[in-house]
């Protein structure tokens, strides 16, 4: 009987307090492009803006190897990876046939012209970049505790989601389990008009305090949407997932969920 692996991810908006988080259950053989689109849907990332995954492969391998050999060092793990031909940092983005050209342009981002705010030397054109629609999620992470980052509108300040693989579940045809579902969460999502989580946090505080000098601005940006900054409607988001991607049975995923298929609203 054929088995499949289902991943449980804990997803959190980076640099935002209090934590704005989601728990997602998704098949490991679905594409990274699909996972990116799910993240966008769950965090109200609705604009057509550049985004990509960053996977700290060395960090992930280090935490895994230290569970087996507690005394192993980072440099030793780095040497192991080098001997196996593995890169220490890998990126995944949605790449069309004409996006990868001699100028180093990927999905509208030209590396040489970007001012990356985390570490400009780290985000260099020479670093390996894979096509997210051609790679399954399990290509990026494979062990409990592995992490990766999803950057949205990153070259303009932007937003970062941290995804941690919490659990792996082996399933077969007899198991009644959803291949794509959000399990729980907290917080509405981002406000596109805000330039990152720091500004969003400032506006949420102002929204709650009528005496705050920024209260009027916060009411305009947050109150006009008719939402609560802290609430997350699991049922509504799962309806949106079904509407956009379909209801996924165990053995017949459809359309953009499969590796290599074209994904709606690409990364």
Number of distinct helices: 6
Beta-strand content: 15-25%
CATH homologous superfamily of the largest domain - what is it? MM3350-like
Q: Rg, please?
A: 19 Å
Provide the succession of SSEs.
EEHEHHEEEEEEEHHH
Query: Structural class, from secondary structure content?
Result: alpha+beta
Number of DSSP strands? 10
What would your notes on this structure say?
- The protein has 267 residues and is an alpha+beta fold.
- It has two domains: 3-189 and 232-250, Structural Genomics Hypothetical 15.5 Kd Protein In mrcA-pckA Intergenic Region, Chain A (Roll); 192-229, no CATH class.
- Helix content is 24%, strand content 23%.
- The chain contains six helices and ten strands.
- It has helices at 32-42, 57-68, 74-83, 197-208, 215-221, 234-245, and strands at 3-13, 21-27, 51-55, 90-93, 105-106, 109-110, 129-131, 147-152, 159-172, 180-186.
- It has an eight-stranded mixed beta sheet. A two-stranded antiparallel ribbon has the order 5-6.
- Helix 2 packs across helix 3 (74-83) and helix 4 (197-208) packs across helix 5.
- The longest helix is centred in the N-terminal third of the chain and has 12 residues, at 57-68.
- The two termini are 35 Å apart.
- Residues 99-125, 250-256 and 261-267 have low confidence and may be disordered.
